[in-house]
Amino acid sequence: MIRSKAYLANGLLIALSLTPPSVVKAQVFDTNLLVNGDAEGGAGSTDGSVVQSIPGWTAANGSFTVVNYGAVSGGEPFPAPGDPGPPARGINFFTGGPANASSSATQALDLSAFALYIDTGRQPFKLSGYFGGWLSQEDNATLTATFQTGNGTPITSASIGGVSAGDRGGVTGLLFRQTNVIPPIGTREVVFLLQMTRTEGSYNDGYADNLSFSALAPPSVAVTAPSDGSPVWACTTFTIAANASASGRSITNVVIVMNGTNKLRNTSFPPGLAGASVTA
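Predicted structure:
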């Protein structure tokens, strides 16, 4: 928890304010915001031939479906529980489905709750998932996030996936991919497109699983000195120490603000301040 501390000494109010906007509850950070990103929200096909209804996703074209790990179609096995893929996998994974060269599904997510963070131009989100295909074929899957304004105008996009047969070493399975992206100022919605592409054969063997999109938590700063309740006298020099951390990122600097004035910027001791002195 980021702290804000204030002391009254000889009539002088000294405040250390280190609190960012607090509109979004802490529990929404570092949490997967995608609905049914692990393909476990409904039943999966036991042989790949049935096009299943997939909760949370809207099928856009083709025969986009969900299949059980270990399913077999015409004597040919789909990815098995022991093949490369998510270590904490469930029963199902997404696939392109039967008899089509291109299939896809979409999902839209409202980001307006993050507006104050996004409009700083510095709020990162993490996009990740597992993607793959069958043996030496180049069928593949990609996940694209398109960031839009509140009226649906696209601003920018980011994509992951596209795992090739070479990446997989010619082995059936799924590999992990991820990227961090900072949505442009004004972003209020993101639309996800999960695209499966067939390059050969009859079945669209683009595979995906454990898809995730999460807002990385804002940096956390804890003032360790002066201690809570300690008096700080006007016109004296005192030491400030603070520890800072950020989920999945590095801290480049810490700024101490007193009475609205930047009193100290430290870049020498990431991720915190050590033995920095200021005058009240």
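Summary: Confidence is low (pLDDT under 50) at residues 1-27.
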